[in-house]
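Reposting from the mailing list since nobody answered there.

I have sequence plus structure tokens for a pair of proteins and want to know whether others read the tokens the same way I do. The first protein:
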Amino acid sequence: MSKKNKKSERFAVWMPCKGYVKKWLVVNFNSPDEDWQELINLSASKVLHKSFLSHLCRKSTRRDTVSKGRYASRVAIEITEDEFHRYGWELTPTETLSFNALLEREVKTVLHTYNAMLSVTGLTIAERIKRFRRATGITEFDWDTDSIRKELQRNSNISGEADFDNLVKNIEKNVWAVLSKSGHITQQGLEEYEKD
């Protein structure tokens, strides 16, 4: 008597979102199988997973129309059967808007950090945006360049200057060590050059 492998059913909540949010979710949390090419499993991030569950409900509010027409993409977010029964299986438009705001902040934090670190290299903002797109796979269709540029100009509050200074100090320390070992500078010179 042979036993058949019974595949467990996967539950998902469909959530409308912006294109760049979907791309970020797919890159960071996709858990595909033969039935689902894109299925987001947020359990790798306790904070996002808990927040998502807190936004779920058992039935929609008919008069809640806050997010209608706002989002061009949508993504399936996986929940367990237990979560399905305990928390619910859908998001109201207001809850959709609220959770999307959290996800948008996450993506923008990645953008601002990446931009700040590269800003010290002298690359133009256009070059930094191109490199960000290439690294993340976020296309013009997902998030247009003008919107990214405006976001960076309005809200860049992360600076890469301190990190750049540390990077330069470490490079200088290595340079002085190599020159000292090769005999091009003395120990006395090394100590002088390493002073701040």
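The second protein, same order (residues first, tokens after):
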Amino acid sequence: MLTQQEACDLVLAGFTQTRGAIAACELDPRGQYWVIHANSYEYVVNGRWDHCLVGAGAYLVHVASGRLDVTPSYETWHESIQDIYDRDDAAGAHYVLRPDCAAGDKRAIVHLHQRLGCSLIDARWLLDAANRDWLTGTGRCLRHARAELAKHGIQTQVVLQDDPRQALSLAPPNHFLQDVLKRLRERASLRVDRPHSQDVAP
């Protein structure tokens, strides 16, 4: 188990081109990671903006193993650590967004057809047992996508699977409704018999 000082020393050891300094260090809400903010000594101690190093957000040091993760500057450390929590909880499995309705549900087929602007055949195909793995990505990204879809009447669930099969990747920042709908249309386009299909009522 790493102490606060050991975690800080680990982060400072990574400053090889310039002298580093710790601005803040605290435990994350789960007590599993040291959250460390560090930058060049001249910036942290003397306030010299011209010496501020950019690119890294916070340093996350796993208390038990000493594993070091560096968060990107465009995310808050709370967002980044949620992705790490999800990764740890998944234990090598994949997060997958799937429909939360029965295959052949006529009301769901029609609604999916209307929301996606796809054919009824495509909508039905997306709900078939073999095609229900829609999207894969981080748990946080897929949960956000699920919430956006639910606002428009498309009920889904996020599950863990060893194999994401044909699920398409949904990566941040592509988790707004239009991005999600676009990826679902692309998922529907994987239907192999598309060139020979005729649209029919469900």
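Reply #1 (J.P.):
I read it the same way you do. Confidence is low (pLDDT under 50) at residues 196-202.
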